[in-house]
Amino acid sequence: MDNTTSLKVTNRNAIVIVFIIGAFVTILNQTLLVTALPHIMRSFNITADKVQWLTTAFMLVNGIFIPVTAFLIEKYSTRTLFMSFMGIFVIGTLVAALAPNFSVLLIARILQAVGAGGIMPLMQTVFLVIFPKEKRGTAMGMMGLVIAFAPAIGPTLSGWIVDRFSWHYLFYIILPIAIIDVIIAIFILKNVTEQRKIKLDILSVILSSLGFGGILYGFSTAGSNGWSDKWVIAAILVGLISMLLFVLRQLKQERPLLELRVFKNRTFTITTILGMISFASMMGLETILPMYTQNLRNITAFHSGLMLLPGAIVMGAMSPITGVIFDKIGAKLIGIIGFLILTVTTFFFAFLDLNTSLTFIIIVYAIRMAGISMVMMPLITAGINALPSNLIAHATAVNNTFRQVAASIGTAVLITVMTNAAKNSASKNPLNAMVTGMDAAFLGAAILACAGLVLIFALKQENKNKEAKEVVEEIKVG
């Protein structure tokens, strides 16, 4: 059955609304605790190392769970999965709001991560199924709006709430939105994905969890603990070995947990790498820039978040527009322009000092986010469009997982560059030394963006139907 033609436009729009709301609250939830962590530390009388697990555990569980979603999407119906993911998220949010101690709050965050980890790949898969290829850019543009806007308003909203109310209200605010979305879904959400009788390979799940989990944990903690830390080294080694075994097992399986042979498709491979570069560059700068504004310019967390808001609004507004443009001209030209903007604006950040105009930072950051909107979702869509429909679930899971890993590695490397450059700075003034370190990190992000600009020229306007058929044949032979 061709879902793109059998679904009425009204039903399609209803499905889009349900997923957009669900994705918005789950993504918003990821960054909502950023400025609330000091308040939680005081509330439970715990250290910074301990409270950081509220974000680290969320990221780890999210990264571990996403690879499993390809199996779940093929095994269970759209309604079953959406209700399950959002139901788990609602339970986790309610427990978090009522948490009497840190342990309960941590468990609640893990439950939230399971629900949130499933929603994005499911939404991406559903959108690509219900929209024809010529409309997929527009659909993914709507996704880009959510991905850009929700995490950006998180720190600002969080700062405003915790300054006036208890941190518990962070969860009380998103809880009713999530519940209402589930209620709406009960009445209007349709099953659009096709199910297959497949069995879960437990060993693949274990290897996947150790692989992605080890790499994510190792690189995410390397920035703060240092690369010589024994736990960092152990986590990365376990992750790499497990990942190698996971890859070898998937290539031998007739029905793998994650179909890695999608990388035989040249277009998908290039666009996935470009997506990893843009996401790592975006997350790395979003991590370091608030350090500059808060630690060196003495700007409050709330106002620091406000500085990033115009950029989020620009990216959110641009995403649907770039989606429409993608549907008309394809990904290569718009991607080249996007990477050019991303490279130039990131180079500007490499020359910050203690007197740089804050207005200049806000404007350059907003232009930079416009560039990212021209890169991220169009390239993801182009890569998945090059694959047959039966591989969409695997492609979205691969794409989301590898972007998570890229963000973790990219951020850790940039923080390491920043730390080492600051230590080796010739300046005796610690503030100037720190600026030197941050400029070095921004320069690293600019070089990364420049690599993406070079690579995108390797993206060809190929016969996607022919390429997709070749991948199917290779997978059948494999």
From TrEMBL:
GO terms for molecular function: transmembrane transporter activity. It is a multi-pass membrane protein. GO terms for cellular component: plasma membrane. It comes from the Bacteria. InterPro entries: EmrB-like, MFS, MFS_dom, MFS_trans_sf. PANTHER family: MAJOR FACILITATOR SUPERFAMILY (MFS) PROFILE DOMAIN-CONTAINING PROTEIN, MAJOR FACILITATOR SUPERFAMILY MULTIDRUG TRANSPORTER MFSC. This is Drug resistance transporter, EmrB/QacA subfamily. The lineage of its organism: Bacteria, Bacillati, Bacillota, Clostridia, Eubacteriales.
